Amino acid sequence: MKKKVGIVGYGGMGQWHACSITGTTYLESIPFEESDVAEVAGVYDIDPEKRSKAQADGYAVYPSLNALLAVPEIDIIVVATPNDVHESIAVQAMEAGKHVIVEKPVTMSCEALDAMIAAAEKNGKKFSVHQNRRFDDYFVAMKQLADEGTIGDIISIESRIHGDHGVPGDWRKTVEQGGGMLYDWGVHMLDQQLWMLGYDVDRVYARFDYLTGIPVDDGCFVDVYLKSGKVLHTEICTYNFIPLPMMYMRGRTGTALFGTWGDDVQVVRCTEWGDHDNILPVKAAAGLTKTMAPRTGRSMEQLSIKLPKTDVHDYYRNFCAAIDSKEDLLVNHQQMRVVMQVIMAAFESAKTGTVVKL
């Protein structure tokens, strides 16, 4: 039997969740297939216009959060509101006996997250954050390369999203509601990287851009150093007119690169480390270089990896299976804690200009 879902917040992501569950088209261009594990049972938004929009879209609309939470048939509450009210809504929903999925970032502090986790444990409810970008096709391809050892033990990952429109409108430009690029996109990249290489974080260094005259970061640059020696670099910019590759991964025996949406993943593997004495210098602008001379074809292998087919609705399938005790949560409490700790350390590092130990 499908789980019944109540959606709190019917803005962009609230509508995205509704479409992904009901199998309707989002924004006239993004089609979804009907969920095999969930159905929408009701919607609430504080804004009357959004409630009217939800009603026009065919959903049962409730006049208050309490009214939605009072529906006994609802199993899951999806919180798709501005970030500053995630905690209060999630805790209230779990106290009302509902399982909870919260849009990212899960909340705005480690203390708030601990309160949410405590509510889940007290009430015996499943609680997780919607880290949908674990299902990005290029990331899945990169993680598979790392897991299979295709380019050897991973040394470092660089993840970037570059845009040229500035920060989106409405509440994402306000400090109080948790706007800015670290909370918006950085949380995705950090979650991806840590899930891929481990949660043994040692220290964090970050700096922010404030180029567009708004009080939140319109760019963030975060370096995470793991105790294993691996380094994670996250870079989110909204003021770049020539974007850099979205993901670059170095391994002991090769390198993998993903350029932009729809590209294949490019891999170069070193098949023979070779003897430096046999390298011939090459002309480099006004001089010669032997150190940076390119390898010959006989000592390396080039691969082009097609992107796999992924299904973001697997997140819902896992969450529903976890409710039925058939699977563990894909995005669990400890993972959420570490990501939040890194985010808090990044804010502190950017403010103080120092490296922050966890």
CATH architecture label name of the largest domain: 2-Layer Sandwich
List segments where confidence is low: pLDDT < 50 over at least 5 consecutive residues.
none
**Largest sheet, order of strands side by side?**
15-12-11-10-6-9-8-7-16
Ends distance:
43 Å
Share in β-strands = 15-25%
Please identify the structural class as seen in this structure.
alpha/beta
Rg, alpha carbons: 23 Å
- The shape is elongated
User: What is the CATH class name of the largest domain?
Assistant: Alpha Beta
Give a structural overview:
- A hairpin with a 6-residue loop joins strand 11 and strand 12 (265-270).
- The strands form 3 sheets. Strands 15-12-11-10-6-9-8-7-16 form a 9-stranded mixed β-sheet. The chain has a 5-stranded parallel β-sheet with strand order 2-1-3-4-5, sandwiched between helices.
- The longest helix is centred in the last third of the chain and has 20 residues, at 333-352.
- Helix content is 30%, strand content 25%.
- It folds into 2 domains: 3-130, NAD(P)-binding Rossmann-like Domain (Rossmann fold, 3-Layer(aba) Sandwich), CATH 3.40.50.720; 134-311 and 340-357, Dihydrodipicolinate Reductase, domain 2 (2-Layer Sandwich), CATH 3.30.360.
- The protein has helices at residues 12-22, 48-56, 65-69, 86-95, 110-123, 137-148, 181-197, 314-323, 333-352, and strands spanning 3-8, 38-44, 76-79, 99-103, 127-130, 154-162, 201-209, 219-226, 231-237, 247-251, 254-258, 265-270, 282-284, 287-289, 300-305, 356-357.
- The chain contains 9 helices and 16 strands.
- With 358 residues, it is of the alpha/beta class.
- Helix 4 (86-95) runs parallel beside helix 5 and helix 7 crosses helix 9 (333-352).
